[in-house]
Amino acid sequence: MGTYFLRRLLLVIPTFIGITLAVFVIMHFVPGGPVERQIMRYQMAAAEGGGAGAGRLSTSLPEEAVEEIRRYYGFDKPVHIRYAQWLWNVVRLDLGNSYIYQDPVWDIIKARFPVSIFLGLTGFILSYAICVPLGVLKAIRHGSRFDFVSSFIVFLGYSVPGWALGTALLVLFGGGSFWNVFPLGGFRPDNWEYLGLGQKIVAQLHHMFLPVLCYMVGSFATLTILTKNSLMENLGQDYVRTAFAKGLSERRVIFVHVLRNSLIPIATGLGHVFSLVLAGSFLIERVFNIDGMGYLGYTAILQRDYPVALGILVIGSLLMLVGNILSDVIYAFVDPRIRFK
Known about the structure:
Residues 52-58 have low confidence and may be disordered. Helix 1 packs antiparallel against helix 15 and helix 6 packs parallel to helix 15. This protein has 2 domains: 2-91, no CATH class; 108-334, MetI-like (MetI-like fold, Orthogonal Bundle). It has helices at 2-29, 34-49, 54-57, 63-73, 79-91, 105-140, 145-159, 162-173, 197-235, 238-245, 250-262, 264-267, 282-287, 293-302, 306-334. By secondary structure, it is mainly α.
């Protein structure tokens, strides 16, 4: 088994290179990059300061100026050389400086870590805490009215994108012509520093209720139905009939024997706990105006801030690859029958 995981770790390197190379090439050939945006800013500045005759003078920049802009952003070299230089800097833990903020990318990303970790961890824990018991209850009451009604609600929530649900919730509960129950957005209230401990807890829950609900809605159907189907599959096994034949109670059979085996497929999802830092959705954080990793990536893509976007890609891809390996480790740990070769 050690050989298998060693191979998986070694495969992280070519997989990471393939992911970053594809995104790097696409981003650097998409129109409207930093060079074009800088040239447009110079032209607009010249037009505003040149008066009536500026329209003719600012239509183009001297070739020397354009080459200087390309050299400043590193676009004067072939794409494979730019990628090799960028990858070497990543190996040295240097993600470069942001085009927009003019700060190191590491500092910009680290400032968003607490927000994304809080949202991701909260949504992760609540999803398992609610969906697993709900799936167990649906399996026990399979075919009942509760099973049909809960399935309808779960799949209805699954069919609605999180950002669309967030927009609807803000319209309904964020003031306006309906109820003013929750704030329109933000991670914390403006007077956070002046609040006591109890007030901070209440204010944080007040601000995070709707965003966390939108984060969770997508995983409700997957976790709930997976738990239900896994439990029902184990209920038909021979060891369950043997347990009932020995006179064990239904509660003991389900919650001691069946549930433990049914949670094996679900436990593998715990391996992705490392990726919680990027759990936030780009559009959900945009809707609720939460300055986390998702919103940072969203603005970086729109503003062609390539160092920031690539920095988030580096962290996200590495966490995803390590999370996949950790899922296999957990799978082999909770199920002794699994042997990787």
